[in-house]
Structures are given as structure tokens and as C-alpha cells.
Amino acid sequence: MNAPPRNMLPRGPYLLCDDTVLPDVPLVDKAARLVAGGARVVQLRMKRTPPRAALAAAREVTALCRRAGALCLLNDRVDLALLAGADGVHVGDEDLPPEAARELLGPGRLVGVTVRGLEGARAARDAGADYVGVGPLFATMTKQVGAPVLGLESFAEVVKGSPLPVVGIGGVKLWNIGKVAATGAHGAAVVSDALLAGDISERVRQLVAAFEQGGAGD
Ligand SMILES: Cc1ncc(COP(=O)(O)OP(=O)(O)O)c(N)n1
Ligand SMILES: Cc1ncsc1CCOP(=O)(O)O
Ligand SMILES: [Mg+2]
């Protein structure tokens, strides 16, 4: 596989390696299964991992992704991204603001920002973000989000008008990822559909193929 440039978000499925889903499996094992299936971008999302274990996981998962030619972004934690030499961060309303993330990370790493619509996407662009995560796209059990479900139609409007590449998140599954790709979205973030599949790597392969087909207009 050709390694993507380290400061550009690859198109396609965007896989979250999450400690709240399938919590008994070590994060590094989950990440290994995701990249074995062809994940080109992995976001390490640690909501319940204690700090020292989180640093170790950030370092291991970053190294593993690099060996596999995938990008590794840290959810929330700019400090861990810097310490681990990760490719960037994803921040939302409850995290450091994107300007601060950019100030710490410099121009060569990715900063993704959660937004709910076009106004947020424009503000994220002005704050120096590289892409926006937009959701919840569909209903999700993985996170309680204090914002209404967008649905495909409103999501497509955001994709159309956004000055930054858009990654949809929330309830993205194998059966609907093609529809997300068909909106022109740059990416589709997936948590439970991949991590709770019987064979995580095989599910990632299927998600990659379905995104490609949907994006090609099939
Ligand atoms: C790609 C992507 N988009 C949105 C989010 C949500 O981030 P945030 O709003 O900060 O919520 P938490 O993930 O921190 O609970 C995301 N993680 N990734
Ligand atoms: C972190 C996050 N932010 C908005 S929805 C979500 C979780 C999405 O999880 P799933 O893919 O399992 O619906
Ligand atoms: Mg966050």
C-alpha cells in the first residue's frame, strides 16, 4: 500500500480505535486489526484509559499505524499526540480550541474539529483546521451527543458548502456508508460497526469497498 502524505487526510473510512467499545480488548490489538483490514486513518479515542496507559497506547498505536502506512490521530489529547509523534488530533467543544491545537502541533500535522453545520465549518477553517467531523449523522449508541441527528439530506448540504473536507460520524455502518460516500463526503467515521464485528479486519475491508462504490456513484 502507498503511504498517504502525513499531513493530508486520506479519503474513505476513518476508523476509531475506542476504549469504550469492546473494552476488554487492548487498544493496540484493536488498532492492529483495523490497519490489517486496510484502515488508512485511525483515531485513538481514550475516554477511560488512565494517563500512563494512555501514553503507552498512543506511542504503540502511532508506531503500528506508521508501519502499516496509516495515519494516527489522537482524540482530544494534543499532549499525547506530541509525545507519541502522532499525525494529528481531533478536538471538539469540550477540548482545547483548534487554534491552540494548531499552535502546539504546528503546520505539519492534522487538526480535525467537530462541528454541527456550515457555520461551524467556516469557523473551523478560520481557526486553522484541516477537516471537520460532522455529526451525529445517524442515531448512535456509542456517545450521547447533545445535538440532533442530521440525517443524510442536511449532511449533504454541509458537504456541499463546507470549505474543509467533511468526515461524517455517528451511526455509520456497512449498510449506509455507501450513501455517506455518495454525498461527496471526504470520509466516514466508524466506531461500533467495525469494533463489534466478528472479524474486525474483514469488516474494515468491506467498509473500504462500500465507500469506494458509493463514492463512485454505484
Ligand atoms: C471524526 C470525528 N468527528 C467527531 C468526533 C467527536 O469529537 P468530540 O465532539 O470532541 O467528542 P468525543 O469524541 O471527544 O467524545 C470525533 N471524535 N471524530
Ligand atoms: C464520537 C462520536 N461523536 C459523534 S457520534 C460518535 C460516536 C459514533 O459511534 P458509532 O460509529 O458507533 O455510531
Ligand atoms: Mg473530544
Short description:
The chain is α/β, with parallel strands linked by helices and 218 residues long.
Detailed description of the structure:
The chain is α/β, with parallel strands linked by helices and 218 residues long. It is built from 9 helices and 8 strands. It has one domain: Aldolase class I (TIM Barrel, Alpha-Beta Barrel). The protein is 41% helix and 18% strand. The structure holds ligand LCLJCK34, 4-methyl-5-hydroxyethylthiazole phosphate (TZP) and magnesium ion (MG). The site of magnesium ion has 6 residues, from loops.
Annotate the secondary structure layout:
Layout (H helix, E strand, L loop, with lengths): L11 E7 L8 H10 L4 E5 L5 H18 L2 E5 L2 H7 L3 E4 L6 H8 L4 E6 L2 H9 L4 E4 L16 H11 L4 E4 L7 H6 L4 E4 L1 H4 L4 H16 L3
Parallel strand pairs: 1-2, 1-8, 2-3, 3-4, 4-5, 5-6, 6-7, 7-8
Helix pairs in contact: 1-2, 2-3
The site of 4-methyl-5-hydroxyethylthiazole phosphate has 14 residues, from α8.
